[in-house]
Amino acid sequence: MQMERIPRGRNVVEAGYEPVAGILAVRFSSKKGKSEWHYSRVPENIWVSLQRVPFPDKYFHQVVRGRFTGIKIEDPPEE
Questions:
Q1: Rg value, the chain, Cα
Q2: pLDDT tens digits for 14-65?
Q3: How would you classify residue 11: left for phi > 0, otherwise alpha for psi between -120 and 50, otherwise beta?
Q4: Is the distance from CB of 64 to CB of 42 less than 8 angstroms?
Q5: Which of 3, 15, 61, 79 has the fewest CB atoms lying closer than 10 Å?
Q6: How many CB atoms within 10 Å of residue 39?
Q7: What is the pLDDT, as a whole number, of residue 3?
Q8: Whether pLDDT at 79 is above 60
Q9: Using an 8 Å Cβ cutoff, are 51 and 15 in contact?
């Protein structure tokens, strides 16, 4: 899945979307390191908004986290 840099994100640094499966992939960066999570059954309008909002970290926590099932990807591919 192609990942795109998320402008203005501090923790949410990259994300990608697979429209057929409705999977939102999110790469995070923190003091603990980097991680990647895939969230299932996410509508495309949420992906579009994540790319455009002024505060992507806040948007992610309010709209995605806890609302969609997330799976941590243990060894994400390097891109």
A1: 11
A2: 999 999 999 999 999 988 888 999 999 999 999 999 999 999 999 999 999 9
A3: alpha
A4: yes
A5: 79
A6: 22
A7: 87
A8: no
A9: yes
**Rounded Cα distance, 8 and 51, in Å:** 10
Non-local (6+) Cβ contacts of 43 within 8 A are 22
Closest CA to 74 of 47, 35, 42: 35
β-pair partners for 14: 5, 27
H runs (alpha helix) in the chain: 44-52, 56-59
Strand order in the sheet with 33-39: 4-5, 12-18, 23-30, 33-39, 70-73
Rounded to whole angstroms, how far apart are CA atoms 53 and 27? 17
Nearest CA to 2 out of 21, 20, 11, 15 is that of 15
